[in-house]
Amino acid sequence: MYAIREALAAFRRSPVLTGLSAAMVALALFVVGLFGLATYNLRLALTAVEEQVEVVVYLRDDVRQSEIDLAQTALADIPEVAQVRYVSKREALQRAQQDIPEFAEIFSGVDVNPLPQSLELELRPEARNQETVDAVSDAASSYPFVEDVRYGREWVDDLFTLRRVGAVTSAVLGGAFFTVAALIIGTALRIAIFARREEIYVMRLVGATDAFIRRPFLLEGAMYGLLGGLMAWLLTWATYRTVYAFIFSVAWIPGGWVAAGLAAGVGFGMFASGLSIRRHLREV
Amino acid sequence: MIKLTDVSREFPRRGYALRDVTFHVRKGEFAFLTGHSGSGKTTTLRMIHMADRPTAGEVRITGYSSKTLSDREVWKIRRRVGYVFQDFRLLPGRTAMENVSFVLEVTGTPRKKIGPWAQRLLSQVGLAAKSGVLVHKLSGGEQQRVAIARALANDPFVLLADEPTGNLDDRATRGILDLFREINARGMAVLMATHDLELVRRYPRVRVLELDNGRLVFDSEAA
Q: Which residue of A has its CA nearest to B74?
């Protein structure tokens, strides 16, 4: 009870210092929030592009239907393949006429359908990577009645390179932002606790136990973290709404990320307070 | 009760602050610890309060030894030893009552008892009427009285005072000394550090321990 009362009283006694410290924590976490928003949307964009990764197996015109059925079944049995769709010559022509209206008349004027029949292989989401695409492509190429296998090698290569670069950049930048946020929160709380060093001194002087002294400060640190985290959340939300309304469509970060950010704020607050109070306790 | 045996405190670059100091303060005794600035008075009080530890020798306080008491257990000594500073060390922005109550609260006194007990302590030091006044609005003598009330809050068996009259005028000094005598008359030991020999001479029956360059050079009890 004393710890809660004292932690709240500290906010009441020095509202300016409390406000400034919470604002520092909030700004530090806001930067992390913006980074989270950017990373999340980048990830969504990459996932959307990856969903279009599929392997198209073009078949010879003279292949028998029984052979196509066999290949379709065998390719569907590959664990990484989610679905195999057969596209007949006729369907291919219809699609071409729909997708490329400029050539619709040319296609309608020909007696012989020049487009090949094909099998379209959709991969499972977790299997949309370069190695799997190569392996599935090789498996499909092994059939003698296969004319060609296409999956836009260069495009897929670039996509996966982009994903790797994105992952490394996210990890490095995220780590840097997180470290900077931790340092700023640490400094803010150190200032807040330094302002109350006399109180700590008196408590030690009159025989309060270390745990008793520490408790309200840990709680205060947690409150700074929570308050700063909530302010950062509001700032990030406001930024998201502004970008969404005036610039381009973006998605809001998942609730789990917000909860993790708030928890990190509380955790950082307590940790920084703990370190700072430990230093002061050693002095008396 | 308080026993220093061959206590030395050596600092890496400054050398010895105390050297082979041995004395004993009995229950209910009043003693002055005198000496020039830098003679080791504050270091001696800090040793008794376990705010610092000897590099050689031993300090014993009611069964606790400086050799075995860990830093985590120092609070056990602190609750039994009151401490008063020259610069009062009160919490600014709080009233006299809040300064005294604070001690009672952090040492686990039940909430219901805190108010009446703090008021009684302030009455003992003659500040009952000013309990609601912010400490920085009190005079130096009054602030020192609040600090004494705070030091008495845990009902210690000894009161250590480090130059408690150093910032006070003559009238306030007499008032504080009279207060110490009253406290001592109730059975509490008082060990007061002062460089003011004039003050010491006014109380010829009080024991005097004199330090010089970290050594105990005079003990009126032994003389």
A: A207
